[in-house]
Amino acid sequence: MIRVEKTGDAYLVFGEENAETLYWGEYFGRPLNNSKPKIGDKLSPMRLSKYEVLYLLEQGRVIVVKGNRKLNIAKPTGNSLTVYIIYKDLRSKGLIVRSGLKFGATFAVYIKGPGIDHAPFLVQVVPETYRLSGIEVIRAGRLSHGTRKRFVFATVTKQRKPIYITLSWVKI
């Protein structure tokens, strides 16, 4: 089991072997000292997102500690729960899920992994009762066209079932 250290708001993995297992195995985490690692680069220390930590905890692959004390991580609620359900669903489909912040979305989703292919999808997670405005449709269209990615709106039903809606250009 891999030890994850909680330091402030950060979840850190120390030890090259642990970092390599998580990163090269399934692209979990980001090395703190290298934004675009290549095979053979040093990966430790590595930072995990809270969604990665929750997912890996559910899988029984990590233990979270602060000092010498084991921590229990609170289950997400509200919008964080919606985001986590989408994250977990995408990961369970074998996709690589990274932050989409630099693209203006919740997630950038890869088929093979960052550095191997480009993320073909941008996913914006919204509440089930969300009312999509015309301006947001235009923003999504422009963003997906400008980045050459498919823009996907994702939400979760009251029964916690993920729903995905994508927009695409049509030539008339």
UniProtKB/TrEMBL annotation:
This is tRNA-intron lyase. It holds the Pfam family tRNA_int_endo_N. Residues 8-74 form the tRNA intron endonuclease N-terminal domain. Keywords: Lyase, tRNA processing. It comes from the Archaea. Residues 84-160 form the tRNA intron endonuclease catalytic domain. One of its GO terms (biological process) is tRNA-type intron splice site recognition and cleavage. GO terms for molecular function: nucleic acid binding; tRNA-intron lyase activity. Endonuclease that removes tRNA introns. Cleaves pre-tRNA at the 5'- and 3'-splice sites to release the intron. The products are an intron and two tRNA half-molecules bearing 2',3' cyclic phosphate and 5'-OH termini. Recognizes a pseudosymmetric substrate in which 2 bulged loops of 3 bases are separated by a stem of 4 bp.
